[in-house]
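In response to reviewer comment 3 from the previous cycle, which asked for concrete evidence that the modeling workflow produces usable outputs, we include below a single protein chain processed end to end. The sequence was submitted unchanged, and the resulting structure tokens are shown without manual editing.
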Amino acid sequence: MTTPLKAARPPARESRAARVVTEVLNPFHVVIPLPVAVGWHQSHPAVTGLLWGLFAAVSGGVLPYALVLWRVARGRASDRHITRREQRLVPLAISIALVLGGLVVLVAADAPDAVLAVQYALLGMGVVMLPITRVWKISFHTAAVAGAAAVLTVEFGAWAWACWPLAALAGWSRIVLRDHTPAQVVAGAVAGAAVCWPVYALIG
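The workflow returned the following structure tokens.
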């Protein structure tokens, strides 16, 4: 029986466009600059928030991404999007630990609230995604984009609503590439927004 992920192959042009979108909206490409942007915007002087944002970006994004790339190079993950669900658990758990470790340093050093709030939001999203990933391949792409859009909307206001269609675009790309079902991309977006919006609004 044909599964939803094994539907008819999309046209080559559509498939290429979906691949570009998937690469550009890689979850790490989304979450790495997020603490830098909000730290710079909310802190006075801005350079203080920028520096703390860079630290958060490294501990919560660059290091986890490096871990994923290392696992790909060692053959422990199929690709940098970790399309096989069972390969996602270990890097996700280690990523949560790295975010938590960075958060401990940020709290101890009295980092800006905006930077702390982003890390708490990412930590919460990871904690929610981990048990779901054990049994179901929820979309990390749409979770990251929707979570980032939620943070940016709280922080920057109305103009940031323009970021929300990117979550739909990311979901479209994952469906076209047959890496996720529609339910998985919708669930990812809901999880990302539902965690990140209230956490960032309360702390940041």
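The chain has nine helices and no strands. We consider this sufficient to address the reviewer's concern, and the full set will be provided in the supplementary archive.
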